[in-house]
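Re: your question about Receptor-type tyrosine- phosphatase delta

S., sorry for the slow reply, the queue was backed up all week. Below is exactly what I fed in.
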Amino acid sequence: PEGSPLNVAVTAESSSSLSVTWEPPEKDKRNGIIVNYTVCISHEESKPCFEEQNTKDMMLVIASLIDSTKYYVRVLASTKVGRGPYSESRGKFTNGKQPEVSTNGTAYTLTFTLQIPSRNFTRFYVVALELKDGQQGRSPASYDNNELVTYTEAEKSTDPKPYIAAVVTSKNENMFTLGDGRNTSNPTSRRRRSTSSDYYNGPLEPDTSYSIFQRIFINDKGDYYSTDWSSASKTNEYTGK
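Result:
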């Protein structure tokens, strides 16, 4: 084919896998029937593939990857005659490993051990979700930043929404108590103090399950990756009168 596959999209599925989807090359650039596609994975945008996988489908899950690592993916189409050109590279981070659940919760709080990145980062969000009927949220990487709401907005919503419980900038804070009532704010918005940049880590509901993930911003350009969801953790029952 003269043309490369179109609309190549890469999504982080987990801390060890990425999924890739694409569409066939333009019809007038196929020069025959497409018999398969080759997906190339590399560590840098224009470096050679360290792995190639072939498929007849228009999607592929790449497994056995390293967590918190950026990979570059490109796709080509082949006919019986031979290979076509690669698409442009798409870079994507795998998720980081999940935060760990701690055992010392109360009716209104849960404690987690956070994953502190070894790489430099500017800040990370701790994002929490109330789990209705034991359901887990979507893959953390699939949430846009503007889909992450505040505690107050999550409280008002009829459907559970992931909310930013805290902004963490320190490499030394690996124990985190969800529901401790503290306020934190984005370091980028301190100059123009506005309430919208404050995040309230409000009390949790008793006898209710929650899960968290971290969204880690690695520079001021807005590049980020997310961790996997923590295991579900349940607050204690309310024992007061």
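The domain at 6-93 is CATH 2.60.40.10 (Immunoglobulin-like). The chain has a mean pLDDT of 92.

Happy to talk it through on Thursday.
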